[in-house]
Amino acid sequence: MAFAAPGRESVDAFHKAAVAAGAEVLHAPRLWPEYRESFCGGFVRDPDGSNVEAVCHRPA
Fold it and tell me: Per DSSP, what are the bridge partners of residue 54?
């Protein structure tokens, strides 16, 4: 599941809040140019085992 974030700071905030709530870190927020030049995403696994991410496609 992916949530659209309005900016990169929101991706960071999502990831920080999810980890604080007990989610497992899959990938810390960063740029993923292999997906798209401006793709910024942070990935966690929730307590049910689902991969959840926040993503922003806006350039810096």
Answer: 3, 42
**What is the predicted pLDDT for the residue at 23?**
96
Give percent of the chain with pLDDT exceeding 70. Answer: 100
Look at residues 36, 43, 42 and name the one whose alpha carbon lies nearest to residue 57.
36
Residue (of 29, 26, 33, 16) closest to 49 by Cα position: 26
Chain length of the chain: 60
User: CATH number, domain at 12?
Assistant: 3.10.180.10
Number of structural domains found in the chain: 1
Give me 43's structure tokens. 């990935």
